[in-house]
Design goal:
Elements lengths: L1 H36 L24 H10 L2 H12 L2
């Protein structure tokens, strides 16, 4: 009998998680649709432009390279590496 009760509780927890997850998905979808209807996505920056680097092969260090480029740290990093290496 305890086994049946344990199975029921496990099933109940799993169903509760599934319902909760579905409820969150529905809520998110409804909010997105409402924002679209209100025009909140109409003037986003980059609208109609291609996504930069979308066709490039995956690089695990992409974020570091973009940060170095954006902050213009190339020369400082190169000088720091030379100093560390003793050149």
């Amino acid at each position: 009998m305890a086994c049946l009760s344990d199975n029921f509780l496990s099933y109940n927890r799993a169903m509760s998680r599934a319902i909760s997850r579905r409820a969150i998905e529905v809520l998110a979808e409804n909010r997105i649709l409402q924002a679209v209807e209100e025009g909140k996505f109409d003037d986003l920056p980059g609208l109609g432009q291609p996504i930069p680097d979308v066709d490039d092969p995956y690089d695990p260090d992409w974020w570091i390279k973009k940060w170095v480029r954006r902050e213009r740290l190339g020369r400082e990093l190169a000088a720091g590496l030379r100093e560390l290496r003793g050149f």
